[in-house]
Write a structure and sequence with these properties.
Layout: H1 2-22, H2 47-53, H3 56-62, E1 82-86, E2 92-95, E3 99-100, E4 108-109, E5 118-123, E6 130-135, E7 141-146, E8 156-159, E9 164-168
Bound molecules: fe (iii) ion.
């Protein structure tokens, strides 16, 4: 019996270690990056399936890692109370409570509302080293996170309006 208990304890310990590694936090000043490239996501669709579901603008951002032109997105200068979801899969990402005017031309948040729904990944495209922000459920590209945000996190999640869906009102 004691061996069984020891084995169960070992399994529990391993599970805790794994979940601790997988947990992401936007609550401090450290930018978290995934240790391995996440290529598998809970929601998997072909490009054709995404194209049917998304507008060309949404597809260009979410599935092709495009960026909307600055100061053009519908949520850039938009401060209504509510919740922001992934436009592709509906995962909750941000709330208006952490949205602020960064002046950069895109919606900016200092913290995700559901950390586990966000994946951060090193991005060396376009001759820059940046941290890409993706939806953890569907892998959709959302934007980038920079370390020049306001307190309390010091982070600026610079997110394309086209990657978001907004729902007004307080969370149920
Ligand atoms: Fe998503």
């Amino acid at each position: 019996m004691s061996i069984n208990f020891r084995f169960i304890g070992f399994v529990a310990l391993i599970s805790i270690s794994f979940s601790a590694c997988a947990q992401k936090s936007g609550n401090n000043n450290q930018t978290k990056t995934t240790s391995t490239a996440m290529d598998t996501f809970e929601i998997k669709k072909t490009d054709d399936e995404w194209r049917k579901q998304l507008s060309p603008v949404q597809f260009g951002i979410l599935r092709e890692k495009g960026t909307e032109r600055p100061y053009t997105g519908e949520f850039d200068k938009f401060y209504e109370e509510g919740t922001y979801y992934c436009a592709a899969c509906g995962a909750e990402l941000f709330t208006s409570k952490t949205k602020y005017n960064s002046g950069c031309g895109w919606p900016a948040f200092y913290e995700p509302s559901v950390n586990k729904n966000i994946v951060e990944k090193r991005d060396v495209s376009h001759g820059m080293v940046r941290i890409e922000v993706m939806c953890a459920k569907c892998g959709g590209h959302l934007g980038h996170v920079f370390e020049d945000g306001p307190k309390p996190t010091g982070l600026r999640y610079c997110i394309n309006s086209g990657a978001l869906k907004f729902e007004a009102g307080k969370k149920k």
